[in-house]
Amino acid sequence: MSLVHSTTNTVSSNVFHRRLNHEPLYAVRAEGNYIYTKDGRKLLDGGVGSGVTTIGYGNKRVAEVVGSTSGCTPAVPGYFNAMREVCDRHGVLFVLDEIMCGIGRTGKMHAWQWENLSSPPDIRVNGKGLAGGYAPIGAVLVSAKVVDTLSAGSGEFNNIYSYQLHPVACRATLEVLKVIKEDALVEQCHQRGIFLEKLLKTQLGDHPHIGDIRLANIILF
After folding, report:
1. 130 burial class (0-12, 13-18, 19+ CB within 10 angstroms)?
2. pLDDT, tens digit, 9 for 90 and up, residues 164-176
């Protein structure tokens, strides 16, 4: 990927700053709060906001059901079931990220439903499609096991932010979910995804400039 930076600031402070009027910076990977350049430099990423500042890149304890930034890469068959069993064996919560791929985009309401899991994830996160782009909102869904553990302890989940439970965002989300259900949009998504995949592979499958066509229903990279 090609990013842009200020050469002077980066060299002197080892902090990456986005600029629009300087030479491109070629980053080959990112880990934690740092990006690594093609020429071997390690730079603190100060250019993409609170996400990197607080949790960094690629939290290895959370699995994305369909890889988005890596280019629509579903896991190999059986992978998530195996991870579910490993988590159960060691008493670890099974956490899935469906911010990008959830809420019907794969042809099922939740992308993990394609995986034939022995039991649902303990924690999963949703966003983006949750309100259909009409309002910014995210949600954390937890299993009965997590709820029971909290209830047996303090009985509270202390998660206080200035803009949580915003009434306009919540109302927009309820309306979007209502339309998804009443208009059978998840099933429509599934059928159109099948058509799209067939069409793309028929028209472009042997194109010399296309190496692979990857879809997770209507999610295309």
Report:
1. buried
2. 788 999 999 999 9
| Residues 34-47: b if buried by 16+ CB within 10 A, e if exposed | bbebeeeeebbbbb
User: pTM score, two decimals?
Assistant: 0.67
Same domain for 48 and 19: yes
The three-state secondary structure class of 129 is helix
DSSP 71: T
Same domain, 93 and 169: yes
Q: Whole-angstrom Cα distance, residue 65 to residue 98?
A: 6
Q: Is residue 130 part of a domain?
A: yes
Question: What is the per-residue pLDDT across 116-146, written as a single tens digit (0 to 9) for each?
Answer: 888 889 999 998 889 998 998 989 899 998 9
Chain centre to alpha carbon of residue 115: 17
Question: 38-41 — which CB contacts under 8 Å span 24+ positions?
Answer: 41/10, 41/14
Going from the C-alpha of 168 to that of each of 103, 134, 145, the distances in angstroms are 19, 10, 30
On whether both 43 and 80 belong to a single domain, the answer is no
Give the number of domains in the chain.
Answer: 2
The angle subtended at Cα 193 by Cα 204 and Cα 183, nearest 5°, is 150
Q: Tell me, yes or no, whether 180 and 125 share the same domain.
A: yes
pLDDT digits (tens, 9 = 90+) for 5-38: 333 344 446 776 655 555 566 777 777 778 788 8
* Same structural domain, 101 and 155: yes
